[in-house]
Design brief:
Blueprint: E1 13-15, H1 19-43, H2 45-51, H3 54-67, H4 69-75, H5 79-88, H6 93-103, H7 119-143, H8 150-179, H9 182-190, E2 192-194, H10 195-201
Length: about 210
Amino acid sequence: MGLRAEAPVTLAQVRRFSPAERWVHRTAAALMGVCVITAACLYIPQLAELVGRRELVVRIHECAGLALPVPVLAGLASRAFRADLRFLNRFGPHDRVWLRAALRRDRRPSSRPAGKFNAGQKIYAAWIAGATLVMLGTGLLMWFTHLTPLMWRTNATFVHDWLALTIGIVLAGHIGMALGDPEARRGLRTGSVSREWAESEHPLWKL
């Protein structure tokens, strides 16, 4: 997969993500970005006029959408990736505490206990995975028009369009939060984070 060798981790650092996990995130993010950009070019008149070549944009959008699950499926070959999926799928009492603090806008680390992933990250991961599957299913219904009744295709188009808008908004929020946390971005870029950040933001994570 063209992964670079791991950089050595110092005592002041903690290994957060393996090369395979970073590859999955980057590849899936790139494909999602292509889907969002091409969708915008298809539905926003000003962008449609600027880009032109609608048929090519449609084909790129379809190919990126079909390829979107591939990085995750390939990532299942990684033990570290499978382990993180298990972490993301477990919702404990501390996650409810984290959510209550988030709703109160209480930003104190002591009020937001978290393991390797906090409750917000778990909810986002579950939501984006479900939304991607729905988008894939509705997209296939829209693509293979001869296989389904007209009402099915109409409903699929409605769901696909509005869910696409919702995904765009949620992704914007996700990117905004990432921009506000340089250490989290560093973890995805290099695989390592500072021990101080890990102990402050994810105190229940077994380092």
